Structures are given as structure tokens and as C-alpha cells.
């Protein structure tokens, strides 16, 4: 039997019932295809995550297909920053999904120091710093980024415009 929780139920748990602090938060929300799902990427919910994260903790948030919806990607990063996080953006090719973007966020400034990976892997580059480099064509979309907030939910509209 599979358990299911509504978006509002999940937000209620995070905001009202949860009293734990986290060292690592991995956010894999669905794409913001409608207003309800766009509310998961709001400044207000990200502020709640900020308060649940330990001082040295990290948060990573999937941020959509960068090659399909670059304004959505940059908007999620900008919204995290408006919630108080320091961010670093990265992307990688995910087989069957394309060039997928992620936001790395923390309460403190993020420094990129990598150790050599000694395990077999198929999708990571030899030099991890390349994950944090973006072609100029992607960088140009930063100026289209918006802050997604409960009073200004627009991420779903941007998502739909980019997928036309």
C-alpha cells in the first residue's frame, strides 16, 4: 500500500508539526506545472526550510530541465536567495531527462572544494567544477528570473510559457 500526502498536508507538516533540524535536505518537488505546485517553490516555504536547516547544513533542490526552462531554473535560485540562503547553481546531463539543473543552498557561503570520486559512476564529469559552469546562452536567462512568493505565484506561468 502506498502512502500519499497532499501538497497542503506536506506544507502543514513542515511548518507546524516538524520540530527537527536537518544537516541535509534534498528537495525533489514535481515541476511547477500549476499554481499549487508552484507554491512549493515559494519564498515562504523556502524560509521554513531555512529555519529547519542546521547552521552547517546543506539543501539541494531540483530545479527543472535547464535546456527546456532556464527562467524557471534561475527563478528557483533567486527565490532561495530571497529566503536567506547562499546558493550555487549546477547542472548535469541526466539520461532520459536532459540537462537538469539543481540549486545548492546553505546558511553560510558555499565554497566549492571537491575530493576525487573513487567509485564507478556514469554521469559525473571527471572535474566536478564543470557542473557549476554554464554556457553563455543559459546565463542570459538570469535577467528573466522572478521571486516566486505566495503573493506573487508566477513560476507555473513561466514554466508553461517555456514549454509551449
TrEMBL record:
Keywords: Polyamine biosynthesis, Transferase. The keyword Ribonucleoprotein does not apply. This is PABS domain-containing protein. Residues 1-107 form the PABS domain. It holds the Pfam family Spermine_synth. InterPro entries: PABS (IPR030374), SAM-dependent_MTases_sf (IPR029063). The active site is at 28 (proton acceptor).
